[in-house]
Amino acid sequence: MDSVASRILKARQYAQERDRRVRVHRIEAELYGEHANHKVAYDDGRWTCDCEESQLRGVCAHIMAMEEILGDTVEPAPLALPQ
Ligand SMILES: [Zn+2]
User: Fold this and answer.
1) Residue 39 Cα to ligand 1 middle (Å)
2) How much distance in Å is there from the Cα of 49 to the middle of ligand 1?
3) Residue 6, number of CB atoms within 10 A of its CB
4) 59 CA → ligand 1 middle, Å
C-alpha cells in the first residue's frame, strides 16, 4: 500500500474514533436558525451564543445542536433547568 493510501486510511480511522482521539479547544460557528442566524462559540469548556435564550439560561437549542454535532470532542454545556 502506498503512503498516500495509508494516510487516508489512518485519517479515516482517526475521524471514526473522534470521541477519544479529538479534543476541541476553540470553535466559532454560525447556525442558520428558523428565524435568524446565530453565532455559537466554544472556548475551552465555555459555550456562548448570541441569542436571547442563552443569555437567560446559559444554554440554548443552538449550543445543544453544536454539542450534538461535536459529540465527546467538547465539554457539555451546563444544563439549565426550566424555570
Ligand atoms: Zn442560541
Assistant:
1) 8
2) 5
3) 10
4) 7
**Three cell numbers at 47?**
459555550
List all residues 6 or more positions away from 80 whose beta carbon is below 8 Å from its beta carbon: 57, 58, 59
How many degrees, rounded to 5, is the angle at CA 62 between CA 64 and CA 24?
A: 60
Positive/negative CA dihedral, 63, 69, 70, 75: positive
| Residue 81: band (very low, low, confident or very high) from pLDDT cuts 50, 70, 90 | low
**Cα separation, 53 vs 83, whole angstroms:** 12
Give distance in angstroms: CA of 46 to centre of ligand 1. 14
- Res 78: pLDDT: 85
For 27, the grid coordinates are 470553535
What does the pLDDT read at residue 80?
Answer: 62
Q: What is the pTM of this model?
A: 0.84
